[in-house]
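Appendix B. Extra example for self-study. Work through it before the problem class; the solution is given directly after the inputs so you can check yourself.
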Amino acid sequence: MIGSVDTIPSSTIASEPVTLALDIEGGDQGPAEVLAGAIAAASPRLRVLAVGTSQVVEPLLAEAGSAATRFIELLPCASVVTFHDEPARAIRNRPDSSIAVGARAVVEGRAQGFVSAGNTGAMLAAGLLVVRRLKGVKRPAIVTVLPGSGGPVVLADSGANADCRPEHLAEFAVMGAVFARVGLDIDRPRVGLLNIGEEPGKGSELARGAHSLLAQGTQALDFDFVGNVEGRDVLSNRCDVIVTDGFTGNVALKLLEGTAHTLFSRIKQAAASNARSKLGGLLLRPALRGLRSALDPEEYGGAYLLGVRGLLVICHGNSSRRAIANALRFGENAVRHGLVSQLQADIEQSLATGPDVATMS
Amino acid sequence: MIGSVDTIPSSTIASEPVTLALDIEGGDQGPAEVLAGAIAAASPRLRVLAVGTSQVVEPLLAEAGSAATRFIELLPCASVVTFHDEPARAIRNRPDSSIAVGARAVVEGRAQGFVSAGNTGAMLAAGLLVVRRLKGVKRPAIVTVLPGSGGPVVLADSGANADCRPEHLAEFAVMGAVFARVGLDIDRPRVGLLNIGEEPGKGSELARGAHSLLAQGTQALDFDFVGNVEGRDVLSNRCDVIVTDGFTGNVALKLLEGTAHTLFSRIKQAAASNARSKLGGLLLRPALRGLRSALDPEEYGGAYLLGVRGLLVICHGNSSRRAIANALRFGENAVRHGLVSQLQADIEQSLATGPDVATMS
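Solution. Structure tokens for the complete assembly:
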């Protein structure tokens, strides 16, 4: 599993240091917080290229001191892509902006991956315009890992493609399955289609079309299509990979975050309601803390943009130093796994033999 | 608020008994469980027409005894619509089937509403084909009430329309707002559009189109359009009514159920992990029980099909006697509020002055 060094087959662990670019000025919590994440994660085996403007990043590096930052190197950019920028335009017109510079570091081989908590749309645009799509991939997808009751669940697409056609969903199934195999060590992932009923004829035109594509074409692929799954199955581990369009996937992802947040604050309130509950809450707190962290999206460090020729990790805009450090460590493990090259090989093969994706457009 | 008798303005409480039809043979838990719900709710002020086949319902009524069933009367049907039936065909071809008979009781004035935990699609078809749409309504919608942190939140559409156009979402906004006003006593409901970003230009083609319709046309209406809301806002009471297509709405609704279920089972597990946690769990249990019931969809008794000429309440297939009883009580209150007639009046007025809904098709 990515993030759990024990389970990485030793054959895939390269012994050389991994270098990742990190967007220091992306994210809501400011550059000092992002840099703190880099300092926590950087090591002789994980070097960080700190992408940012000299005037912001140099003083921060100086303040942290040379001991803390000895595995971190400034990669200067001229400007920062903000949440107000129109993503594609920012990437096209400002090649010296933070996200364009970070993505180019991957293309040029100076870094093996790029991590940013900045503008998600700009990361997507950088993936399409700078890193570029893998051969045969029509629609790169954002893949996140959800905390299912019985283990991690892969969600594809989590927000890259708001409008999709059935063949795009079939492509997400292929990419999600490869991610589950390579990243989560699941031999033959079970792939489900998120829908509003279990029967094949249920749902929107899009879901019905995707169902019939996936039902006819997965024999030759290394995953099993288990059919439609519903919202209540998302965390139940009925399948390892949940496929949906980026609109539904993004709503679902944020709803999960919001629901977990709401429930935990209400548990806190309930535990403060009287003396008996207060004592109970105090005694239960350590066990609930474990649960809360198991459900925390920061545990998984970020989302992966799959289907492009490099490793792009998109962190939540509100990422803390802990989330940034996790994303860097997960990125390092993904590089050591050879995630992108395996994805490339498997996706190309899957697309060639898969659910008629290659012949549609 | 529907379901809370205290808050009903006395002027809207009619003193006559209310009669509701109830589909005894709909639902996963079997007719005895549904009838138990009817027995719990029926009273001199709430009479129940028990729709079912004589051979199933008569013995159950006899077994329960005449005292328990004195406010319940059999309304016989010849067959039952099951979850395997194609909904529209079942309603069209089998006028003596349970859901068709219940819906016809509403049209004929024998009942003031119809409650069923059976096939949702068949209830929708009965709404369209038997009860028929309100004047000016293109797409009746299923409206549910979600347990927001600060009070109830209306979700429209929760699953009636898997494929929508922008003007349908504008219509759901109008209907959801009327429901919030009449049913939840919210004077001027705040309506949000479920989307994957807050800015107006974000989201799918459908969401962008609905945003521009709603942004231009709500001045004359009795609600405020607050713009886009995201998945994490669903339970945060940023708005009183959340508008979305029936596909996204249904996924969201079931995801909420699934997440709450998963979290509570994991809290249970955490509370069983060691002696300290066990004691904590024991002490906290009464407070958490209150929270659990506040989050329980059964509290709200069901979903309302809005936009048709009668009150149709759709219960969860897995409804217990408690859920059935709540749905009947909520239905009674809706009748006493004159929900449908107020909806009819308000929807017609809203559609005439609203966000260009009437001129589109």
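Self-check: Chain A has a mean pLDDT of 87. If your reasoning did not lead you there, revisit section 3.
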